[in-house]
Prior knowledge:
The structure is a homodimer of 505-residue chains. With 505 residues, chain A is α/β, with parallel strands linked by helices.
Amino acid sequence: MKLRISHLDIDASEPIVLLHDDDCIELGVKENDRVRIDGPARSATALVNRSDTLVERGEVKMPDSLIDSLGAACGDEVNVVYSAKPDSVRGIRKKMDGEKLSKEEIRNIVFDIRDGKLAKIEISAWLTSLYINGMDSEEIAYFTQAMVDTGDRVIFDRSPVFDFHSIGGVPGNKVTPIVVSIVAAAGLMLPKTSSRAISSACGTSDFVETFCDVELDANTLKSIAEETGGVLAWGGSMNLAPVDDMVIKVEYPLGINPRAQMIASIMSKKMAISATHLLVDIPTGTGTKVKTIDEAKGYARDFMDIGERLGIHVECAITYADQPVGNAIGPKLEARECIRILEGQKHPSSVVEKSCDLAGIILEMGGIPNGSAEARRILESGAAMKKFREIVAAQGGNYDIKSEDLEPGKHMVEVFSTKAGYVHSVNNKDLVSIARAAGSPSDKGAGILLLRKKGQRVERGDVLFQIYAEVESKAQRARDIAVRLQPLQIEGMLIKKFTSVSVRE
Amino acid sequence: MKLRISHLDIDASEPIVLLHDDDCIELGVKENDRVRIDGPARSATALVNRSDTLVERGEVKMPDSLIDSLGAACGDEVNVVYSAKPDSVRGIRKKMDGEKLSKEEIRNIVFDIRDGKLAKIEISAWLTSLYINGMDSEEIAYFTQAMVDTGDRVIFDRSPVFDFHSIGGVPGNKVTPIVVSIVAAAGLMLPKTSSRAISSACGTSDFVETFCDVELDANTLKSIAEETGGVLAWGGSMNLAPVDDMVIKVEYPLGINPRAQMIASIMSKKMAISATHLLVDIPTGTGTKVKTIDEAKGYARDFMDIGERLGIHVECAITYADQPVGNAIGPKLEARECIRILEGQKHPSSVVEKSCDLAGIILEMGGIPNGSAEARRILESGAAMKKFREIVAAQGGNYDIKSEDLEPGKHMVEVFSTKAGYVHSVNNKDLVSIARAAGSPSDKGAGILLLRKKGQRVERGDVLFQIYAEVESKAQRARDIAVRLQPLQIEGMLIKKFTSVSVRE
């Protein structure tokens, strides 16, 4: 059927066309069916949206991106015909039915997501099926490989290539620049790519970009890493396993992150950067992604198993995550706390310990004995700070960076304890909500500074934490939320009292 | 945040707004997040689509339907703020996790779908979870009740109200007008609502509308049913359990129809029409929705159990569906075959038998003994045809209707057998594909006339079936598909030969 192209002023994440109801009947297509459009340069498929008012008969409206990809222009006549669903939809159906998928089926799904051939509702059905029915480690390995093949790979002239990854979920986890600096100072190469926050308070890239550029292309990343041994890039600025970013757009509103998708997503980014040795940090605790040690062990087994299938040496560290790492949450606050540790400050000790423990495992993978002690020596000697300065400067930041350069937002409110006792628990999720309400991560100065953590003694009227914001109204809103949520629970030493019960016969 | 409204020329099945990337950052919203828009008349929520080219800063683009519902106009300034996900998303997550939902949770989901508060990806996740994790009969009963409550109910002055429903899947199932006419002629009331084809070759309403009007409002349906005892309406023309139609838009492209959704969908339409007695016909066989007798029994148990919970007396009939009912597939062809039976023709006997058996069960539910024999007597006496004429005339059709009035499309091609033997099997799905390629159901004259059915003797060169079309190119295309698919399998009497195997020790 010949139809005339006109412009549709939306750019959906899936390729759509708008057709008149009567033309749809003639074409034999329904809403969400597909049509193939034969343009002068090439053909493309798109999902059908119907209307009898917004489009005329004989007209096909489409976004400019689609017009361009056809090599056509507004007003051109193009041939439009019904197009069957892609084969990958059958693979999705199979996973819905709980069946194991073949390498080829997984590959089809991944490539069709990348090429925009699957509708959002189909991707949603895929993720929901993965969430419910899962994948075995052979499937996850195929899945990972397919995701790698959708994007670019960075090949280094140096080998081995070390890498590490923290599964998200614990706020204030600012260890990455410290670990990278220690490992690079020891002479190993660790080209670290990180992410920005999706639903958390602050991703590594969100705080690193407060003191240097994180949007590096693959060549820049390669040369900085080969020269300094380290790099702190935003993974999203390269075309590494790009299908992951398309999936996240659907995962995020569903609030799910299927285990198979999560593992394949992480492993594919690491393969794309040619990692030969990988440490996976699995923060475990209530209020994080992984709740129990048993669950964490399950993840660890999967990562190691899949690493073996893909030729990557994987080790895992299960870390404590019942409360934030360190005291600071939010871009500039985290950056300041991180740099203070590099400058030699001993507190918060949780940041020092976690950084040295993780760096230590990587050093040992690289053949350096007594890893953790050696890592601490490198940190305390100032060698890590020197390496950090080199990396920052290579990424366009100031070589003479100091922690005091990073100033939090000028609007600060304090939250007080309404009773005396001990901090019995710290709710990670509540702290994330408060930090986000304050403006984190887009307002760089926004966030939370914890003055009390678990187990500490608190008197009535003590400041529990401070909220920083760049906009006064956000500080107030965050405080209101804090007062409502009470993220720090204060109890007496006696948590629960049992009355003695006498038993009579 | 104050933004200026402008027009977006798409009317998606979910309410969307287009916002500039920078405004999204300021609002703290991501793609697929929600915003609340406060209009002069009322507020509404919509899903966020982002762009940095198609919309300016300070502008919010939205479809006219949304502008109207806010009581606003293009150019107006409205307040736009972040809005949390509706509670029902938590219920969807619970079903993903395989948990049982409460009455309230199910109700929230159903009402939020009706009110357009859930995104398509959320509805897709809901249906996928239902497909995989299912519902028990208590949940399905709540689900049904909630769906009824989203729409109108038809209340009759007569009681009892009989009804029946055939689960889709078997082509050529043209029994509805015959069953309704027999039952109404016996003095019972059966206000039948039917559907149009979604993915099948021809729904009941698709062929009934070739000889009378099926788009009746609730009042017309009520008065025709109370006066004549029968009616043959398109269910979609009334506001009965309207949420079902919104769900179908997502189900259809996924190619799934979760059991719980299917049962609730059928039962809700029947409750909305105040049925007191319901017969469910479950066509069973390869190539239909229900493949085996065991599966059919499972459905039957569910329908009766849920009927009991909802106060509807339900009986079920498991019918043979390994091949089409009768010989005709497609609107006018089915209408012609259906009316011929009412006129007294004895063939195809499968149509006569199925109609009388189903009508017979309904008569017995109404206290009339020997139902099937009585149904056949009513059919053969001409009383059913007389009643059919009354109903057709009441629906604006011709009282003097004759089967010859219905002429199939003038382009006819024949498909021949390439070998001699017996018809071993008839593939329903292939016939549907061929009939749809010929133009059915939108081209009323398009379809298939089977000249041979299962078990019949065929000589090489015999005509197996005829394809009718209104457009010559569609007839040719359908024939090409028929030659490729070979929907009738011809075999010798010996289907498989085993060679004897001698066992040595």
